[in-house]
UniProtKB/TrEMBL annotation:
This is trans-L-3-hydroxyproline dehydratase. It is an enzyme of class 4 (lyase). It comes from Chrysemys picta bellii (Western painted turtle). It catalyses: trans-3-hydroxy-L-proline = 1-pyrroline-2-carboxylate + H2O. Belongs to the proline racemase family. Transmembrane segments: none annotated. One of its GO terms (molecular function) is trans-L-3-hydroxyproline dehydratase activity.
Amino acid sequence: MFMHILFVVVDIGYGGAFYAFLSAERLGLDVCSSKTQDLVDAASAVTEAVKRQFKLHHPDNEELAFLYGTILTDGKDAFSDEPTTNISCIIQVRICLKLHLQFYFKC
């Protein structure tokens, strides 16, 4: 069995559930051209590592204080008029969706 150890920084976000966010590029992957299984495996590893290393807290209900999954981005994390591509891997139910999202930002 081959194990690759990599240290990365992730952002944790909440929008109804907690997710870890990072660019797939930090893991040596591309959300558009990498094999889906490679993306799922990498996101699963990130989710498990975050669960082991961080204790999340929910302000209203501690039963909601768990990491729901990992979202790998295409690295275009700043505002862009162009669509961005992300892959959301929800580990508990093994769902993996590629999403093309157009982000809008208004000051």
